[in-house]
Protein 1
Amino acid sequence: MSVIWLDSIDSTNSEALRRLPELSGGTVLAAREQTAGRGQRGNTWFSAPGENLTFSIVLKDLPLKAPEAVRLNYMTSVAVASFLESHGVEPAIKWPNDIYVNGKKICGMLIENVLGAQGEVKASVVGIGINLNQKLFPQLANATSLSLCTGKAYELEAELGKFLSVFDGLQIHSPELFASYSARLFRCGIPATYHDLLTDREYRGVIEGVEPDGRLHIKEEGGPDHYYRFKEVSYIL
Ligand code: BTN
């Protein structure tokens, strides 16, 4: 993988999408500062300049059909979790692809796919923000960083290299990937409150797991089993 470091850019995902025709698969755009970092659901991704990892991996010609695109979530989540575990922390994957440590968010991902005419994933921009050194999160109530967890300071270039070698070592079609993802699922088996966005109703339930097609399975207390796609349920934290 070849890394291009940018001092400042609006968003590494936006830049990767703009430059997609000219970038080869395996290129990584990393930014010391993002001026308009993008998160899920149109949110802004806040990251103090020079303190954290904010980067996008360009993948091309993946052996992946659109319905299998969820495997990119599995692979990226498992890679981030393994990277954090190598630093001695215990991460959990909050479905679909946030990474939490001690109940606080340490990493977010924004995976943007370009689909081809045959229903294949022609290219993918895997955007990842991992909080490394930031200690104060004025805009966010529930965020943490590796440094807050371990008390150490981290060098951005070295940590990106370590992460990429973990990511590079994973196979998108490996049979173990889904099991590795499921084994680290946040709140699995623990009663908690969820907000069903389809019916606008809150209820108590237990996450039973994730279906291989990516849907989250929650068993409602004294009620039915629910199977959610992305944006159909939210966690009450
Ligand atoms: C989320 O949790 O809402 C997703 C956050 C994704 C942030 C990363 S930082 C690098 C890449 N560039 C962006 O603009 N967003 C992603």
Protein 2
Amino acid sequence: MEKIIIFDTTLRDGEQAPGASLNPQQKLEIAFALEKLGVDVIEAGFPIASSGDFQAVKNISAKIKKSAICGLARCLKPDIIAAHKALRGAGHPRIHLFLATSKIHLKYKFKKAEDEILTLAKDAIRIARKLCPDIEFSPEDATRSERDFIYRIVEMAINEGARTINIPDTVGYSYPQEIYSLITDIRNNVSNIEKAVLAIHCHDDLGLSTANSLSAILAGARQVHCTINGIGERAGNAALEEVVMALKTRKDVFGDFFTQINTKEIYRTSRLVSNLTDFVVPPNKAIVGRNAFRHESGIHQDAVLKKRSTYEIMDPHDVGISSSQLVLGKHSGRHAFGDRLKHMGFNLGQKQLNQAFTRFKDVADKKKDIYDDDLRIIVQDEIRLIRPVWKLESFEVASGTKIKPYASVILDKKGKLLSGSSGGDGPVDACFKALEKITNFKAKLEDFRLEAVTSGKDALGQVSLKLKVSGLIVNGRGSSTDIVEAAVRAYIDAVNKLET
Ligand code: KIV
Ligand code: ZN
């Protein structure tokens, strides 16, 4: 069997998704989850892009030992130096160089001829190769580039010491047969191709990224670039969970291949990434969506009870979805709470554990049965920000058909209590206006979503929102059995991000 190397770019291309920015601490947390998931390479960031990115790659390099850590760089010396410096602590560092090769990019982006691009790439690979033995090279927009130029630049890159050649479908334009023939043609026309691993990097603009990645594997690619939940630039990248589960489930087609992904970690990692990036996983998302293993039709339910495989091609346990079993209630102690969290893969420090426990007790007072999904939300809510500037102390709302909605809110700002009140069009609007008065941020609500985390009348509601403050979009999330409180918490979460 041949191994398919899983290259996860959630922290780089995934973070390029509009509005998905993560701080270095959150990136580290995701990197731990990716390591536990078993990804071979973590693309941790683009070190030259910002000091936050540099720091994140540096922290991840220092802490993650099993996966290789990769930093992205343009074919420019300062980029390469920054990547090298950020990766210094890594057990297995990799520098990923990229340079566009399509005519449209050469003409409009660079105003350069093919030979100039070739020289730039060659010089960059030489510099990088001296600093790091593991170099990956990507001819950006490869799927829209002239074949002959791709062969030339790939051959040169391998001659200069690139160990991996990645073929990006940068704009998500290709369809599976095209990818198959591109990879086949590269294998047949690049004389030294056997000295490198061929990789594929697909975007999802036409919804074909997973199909294209699988097609590349059939044609000879042995590394796949992907992201958790498929997040990424524009419509996103190929979703790790889809590629991995397709390889596992369709043994009739992909029986010659394996990955070292521990699929039981998929669901947990998906929820963590969704929570920290504020990208809600659509209910119908393959593998990790809330409905991915739910059967609504009576005919389906009946058949599944008789024989699961009548309507289920995968076992939800294989991706780490447990049938929401009852875990804890209001009488559960700190010890049982901590144990359950450990079992779910959370490793909290004492302070975070105490904070999460207090919140758990709060929720358990209002909600009788606490399920794993509830716990995950409670904990992730509490550990989102290390030192939040604003904390909810209390709030009150009055609302009804015959009265004008009115809210009073008290926040704790670094130990000092501040209060504000306001009327509004509804209870949530009144709370947000009160919060605006206290925090002094002029915020416009751009998006507001509410979903139930578990089922039942006392389900935990989760609010995800987007605020626009001085042209900047910030996401926020909050949860509670009370949906107004969930909205207040989401608003405070967003405002806290403005303070960091
Ligand atoms: O989509 C793309 O081309 C990229 C490159 C940097 C590999 O993300
Ligand atoms: Zn990309």
